[in-house]
Amino acid sequence: QVHLVESGGGLVQPGASLRLSCAASESTSDYYAIAWFRQAPGNEREGVSCIFISDGTTRYADSVKGRFTMSRDSAKNTVYLQMNNLKPEDTAIYYCAVVRSPDVDYDDLEEQLYDYWGQGTQVTVSS
After folding, report:
1. What is the pLDDT along the chain (127 residues), one digit of tens a residue?
2. Phi, psi at 74, each rounded to 5°
3. How, if at all, do strands 68-73 and 116-117 pair?
4. I need a labelling partner for 79 at 20 to 30 A (CA). Which of 20, 53, 114, 125 fits?
5. Cα–chain-centroid distance for residue 30?
6. Are 34 and 96 in contact (CB under 8 A)?
7. What are the distances in angstroms from CA 101 to CA 34, 105, 106, 113?
8. What is the DSSP letter of 113?
């Protein structure tokens, strides 16, 4: 079972940037996708972005398009989420998750698709 560890969260002002990291305990080269989700207090967990292992393409939620960029370093078994121009509404716990074999019943940004999750890292955007 793969273990995921997120890091890089913190307290920043609106307009600032943060880079989150998600380190996997083993190679994810034979997985289908790795994703970032977030959950704000009182809200359901929502998909933020994902990267498809086969070709490195990415997909983003509309709320973060143009501001967030996801990338992967396969040599380090690590994915990153570069978050620019942060807004107060980005405040949440951010989780990474992986899926080995996709279930066609779920969208790539739906949490039900994913098998393994990290513990999360808190991001707070406030002045």
Report:
1. 899 999 999 999 999 999 999 999 999 999 999 999 999 999 999 999 999 999 999 999 999 999 999 999 999 999 999 999 999 999 999 999 999 988 888 999 999 999 999 999 999 999 9
2. -65, -30
3. unpaired
4. 125
5. 18
6. yes
7. 11, 12, 12, 9
8. G
